Amino acid sequence: MDGDSLTGRLVVATASLADPNFALTAALILEHGEQGALGVVLNRPSSIEVEQVVPGWSTAVVEPQVVFIGGPVMPSTVIAVGRRADGPSPGWQPIFSEIGVVDLDADPALVMPGLQALRLFAGYAGWGSGQLESEVASGAWFIVDTAPSDPFCAEPAELWRRVLTRQGGVFHTISADPTSN
After folding, report:
1. Could you read off the pLDDT of 79-134 as tens digits, one per residue?
2. CA 44 to CA 72: how far, in whole Å?
3. Distance between CA atoms of 147 and 45, rounded to whole angstroms?
4. Angle, vertex CA 116, rays to CA 38 and CA 72, nearest 5
5. What is the spatial distance between Cα 46 and Cα 117, in angstroms, rounded to a whole number?
6. pLDDT tens, 121-179?
């Protein structure tokens, strides 16, 4: 990460964030700079099976093997986030550490070797210049480090609570009900 960039970090909704698009979500920031930010919500699975959307990629997709709702912007766009430990490969754009974006137009036979995990997101979350910073300052989001397993969590309904709980301190008893916190 460069300077104040949030690329590769999680923004986690505070319990008071009432926007139904983001209530109780954790979003991975894929890009962040002067023009704004782009990320995907990690904990909103849909009922659409991956094989229905992008045949040929489902063998790399971790459970649950459904497309996740990445955010309210451009829901017909599919973004693939993957983890690989063996460095660069065709169709792979690293974001941080072992996490990157996978080009679904690339030949799966070239990309899948070395791919340890894959998750697909329909749409994305987008913020204009300064918007995310303003929302963080107003108390809508916490900024936390991303664990390599977060984008591929097998129990997405538990991700929001799990991420906050691992922060320690006051978060050790975090509840989805803001009046209980």
Report:
1. 999 999 887 788 999 998 899 999 999 998 888 888 999 999 999 999 999 999 99
2. 11
3. 19
4. 25
5. 18
6. 999 999 999 999 999 999 999 999 999 999 999 999 999 999 998 887 655 445 555 44
User: What kind of fold does domain 10-180 have according to CATH?
Assistant: VC0467-like (3.40.1740)
d(CA 39, CA 29): 4
| The pair of three-digit structure tokens given for residue 27, joined into one six-digit string | 């979003």
What does the DSSP assignment read for 138-152? TTSEEEEPPPTTGGG
Q: For residues 141 and 129, give the distance between their C-alpha atoms in angstroms, rounded to a whole number.
A: 16
Q: Where are the domains of the chain?
A: 10-180
Closest to 111 (Cα-Cα) out of 59, 146, 148: 59
Calculate the alpha carbon distances from 141 to 69, 74, 159 in Å. 19, 22, 15
What are the DSSP calls for 55-69, one per residue? Answer: TT-GGGBPSS-EEEE
φ, ψ of residue 50 in degrees (nearest 5): -55, -40
- Give bridge partners of residue 92 from the DSSP assignment: 102
Altogether, the residues listed in the chain come to a count of 181
